[in-house]
Amino acid sequence: MVDQGKESILQFAPFQSAVDEGFWHRLSSLKLNKLGIDESPIPITGFYAPCSHNQVSNHLTLLAESLPPESSEQSFVPAISRGNRNRCPVPGILYNTNTLEGFQALDKQSLLRAEAEKIWEDINSGKVEEDSSVLLRFLVISFADLKKWSFHYWFAFPALVLDPPATVVHLKPAAQWFSVEEAESVRTACNDWRNMCSTTDVPFFLVSISSNSAVTIRHLADFEACQREGHKVLFGFYDPCHLPNNPGWPLRNFLWFICRRWSLQKVHFFCYRENRGFADLELSLVGEASISNVQELRNHQNMPNAVGWEHNNKGRKTSRCISLAKTMDPTRLAIAAADLNLKLMRWRQLPSLNLNVLSSAKCLLLGAGTLGCQVARMLMAWGVRKITLVDSGKVSMSNPLRQSLYTLDDCLNGGEFKAKAAVKSLARIFPAVEAESVVMAIPMPGHPVPSQEENSVLEDCRHLHDLIDSHDAIFLLTDTRESRWLPSLLCANANKITITAGLGFDSFVVMRHGAGPLSSSDEVKAGDVNDLSAEVGTLSLMENIRSQRLGCYFCNDVVAPIDSTSNRTLDQQCTVTRPGLAPIAASLAVELLVGILHHPSGILAKAEFSSSSDSGYEQPLGVLPHQIRGSLSQFSQMTLVGHASTSCTACSSTVVSEYRKRGLDFILQAINHPTYLEDITGLTELMKSAGSFELDWDYEGGDEDEECVEI
Amino acid sequence: MVVSSDGTLSSTEFCLAAAVFSEQWRKFNSALPQWSWVPSPKRPWISHNKEEGYLSVENVILPELNEEGRRDEDLIEKEECSCAEGDEFIDAAVLIQNDGAGAHHYDFHVVYSASYRVPVLYFRAYCSDGQPLLLDDIEKDLPLNSVEQLTRSRWLFITQEEHPQLNRPWYTLHPCGTSEWMKLLLRDDASAAQVEGIPMDKYLISWFSVVGQVFRLRIPLEMMNLGCT
């Protein structure tokens, strides 16, 4: 409450802006679809309502419907409906610039004056009496950054300045100013005014109090009539402010209008505020303002000064910025939706699902063909984000049919490199994927290297070694047997999770390699042991101590990988398989990886079968087999186990330690002389001692356990 | 008309229940802002004249938890254009305010899900100036036991979905468990009120007595008198 008699300046609480997210969405779409680079000002409508909370002021709000409707509006944006008590419409204008520099360069002073000028004219012309909301005309400048989804904006609520400023004679809660009968009558009159569609959104009015305490609410145009009737008149307005000692901003221009129109030196005003939809006379204020030079103001020719740029919530006069990236940026929305999908799976079905281990697993895919494309897609579906694809080939015309990441466009002009096209395709499916491409051929034994190419082949070997070291899981998805040899060796060396998928015409194999034979501390030093076979003996003893490893792709082979592709006709060189196989095998390969990542023993997990009870730990994802072999001609599938062979050309300790000892020299030797591998692993010996017998690919050697289980 | 035993309700029943719910709310819960029915816009290619829409209450400031903890700058990147330009005129008549980010405002919509056949609560939160709040900020507004309940419960968790009418992402209490717990709840409510079954139009009152708890929006006891029609 303000002391009477003191000439303190009447201080108004500034209007505060609030912009609903929907406004920015609509402005963005308007800018993109209709306006383009057009920077002409846009007429908009703001909405406000009288204060309805004793601790929080109401704001001038911009909603989606604040912008003018587009003629071919597809979305169902409701037109502005009058008669909404919570949405009194107020005219405004929006200047939206095309650049941030443009936004900063706008002449704010002159824009403010231009709008203040319109208010001035409306006061002088009598427009205010027709439509009093023009007293609240406002201005917004903005810059919509549609790449970053952030919006810079600044509101101005032009107010004509009284010079000297109006002073307060008194200001108190309405309940203390009205008599009891008057209060009752005021409440009724206000509630009626607010409940009628035609008047509920008219923010300026007269409170006319007759001598017998009957109160009516009248339009501004009725002022002279009220005077003639001898009634006490208060100038009322919807006050957005909640403060007990300050009226809201609308009173500023209202006072100017009253001075101009009726030359009153003392103005009695009524700040109307509500609670729960009814007039609240404790919160509402009644006050008296004194305008000392009212005659001078009446004759004022020029427009007075105008103020009104909004202060931010720290009290500084500066623009604001809002970021809507999280709700508008399609990439973020896609990420949120994908995460939700996996989380729902975890909530509803699989509480032990470890989404973190999946999203952080770095997967290396060797081969971007039928298997590679499907594996990549399945990995993304499981929430794996880090995928590297290695392939030396280009997309050819028959590929898009079976290789699900490519389209015809990738085949044109000689064809894009598969690895690169695959990465682009993955990003189109899910923008947050972190996919990388490596265009590289995998060196293969049995394909001897001419000496001028030696360096580049060794470079490729080094590169492959580094790739394998830097990833957590490696998928061998190439189309020849020999191309899997070097990766298998390197994975065994680095003890990485390795999954192989291979296709026959109507059959497939998917398997996980066992752990590597040597731990990183099992270094074999160069000069220690001269006798190779003695070395083999010692090491296989260590292996037995180290418990039986599961085998790799080559453990069942009794011949070293050789060139399987030359001297064959074209149709034999291309792998021809029934199209349904690759997606099945690829899906199983990914599900197998997910199983390993969730298994407490990880790469060391033993082979499990559906009927076995040897794993006391009940896995929510089910069993974790070693190998799955399936046949489309039978529509059947079975799980198998094969243990590591001490004579394996890829993962035996002999070979791995030889690689550790001699590195790339060893590789080169193996590539150029395939029998070398057979010699050092003892396979040559084995074959000689076995005499002559048919080598059957599907027949396992003697010392391995095996269970065949039909699924 | 009694609620079906599987905890779901039809679209027509939802409209009726919505009317009863908002009317009862007005009668018994007038301290809080009131619900209004927002009809869905008529689509010209659909022939039936069935009324469809959703319940909405907006600009709710949640009952205060405690006075600590609303830091001013806990919101997302709010860069400011430092193009501050003063008016040439120093204005003595303006009150400078320095209130900080202000209160958190909530909008709640109750929308019918045709696929789950249950009501779904959609909500969003924003600051006084319109800046939307994220789930992390919202969780700070919720009472502690709500947050615990949400993280552990199979039936009640917050996800982000596209609002079916407004086509923007809103937060929602996922409806997949609703029919299950409504089934149990209605059975308990019926035995408490000593009636055979709860009348259909009281469905939303029962439903809100659970979901409202997440936000400390209580249904007063008088409103829970579900036995009478």
From TrEMBL, chain A:
GO MF, one example: Atg8 activating enzyme activity
Subcellular compartments: Cytoplasm; Preautophagosomal structure
Keywords assigned by UniProt, alphabetized: Autophagy, Cytoplasm, Protein transport, Transport, Ubl conjugation pathway
Domain Ubiquitin-like modifier-activating enzyme Atg7 N-terminal: from-to ranges: 10-328
GO biological process, one term: piecemeal microautophagy of the nucleus
Chief site of localization: cytoplasm
GO cellular component term of the entry, any: phagophore assembly site
Active-site residue numbers: 574
Domain THIF-type NAD/FAD binding fold: 345-601
Coiled coil: none
Function: E1-like activating enzyme involved in the 2 ubiquitin-like systems required for autophagy.
Family: Belongs to the ATG7 family.
Description of how the protein assembles with itself and partners: Homodimer.
Name under which the protein is recorded: Ubiquitin-like modifier-activating enzyme ATG7
The organism of origin for this protein: Sesamum alatum
Automatic annotation (TrEMBL), chain B:
Phylogenetic placement of the source organism: Eukaryota, Viridiplantae, Streptophyta, Embryophyta, Tracheophyta
Protein name: Ubiquitin-like-conjugating enzyme ATG10
GO cellular component: cytosol
GO MF: Atg12 conjugating enzyme activity
Keywords, ordered alphabetically: Autophagy, Transferase, Ubl conjugation pathway
GO biological process, one term: autophagy of mitochondrion
Coiled coil region boundaries: none
Top-rank taxon: Eukaryota
PANTHER family on file: UBIQUITIN-LIKE-CONJUGATING ENZYME ATG10
Family the UniProt entry places it in: Belongs to the ATG10 family.
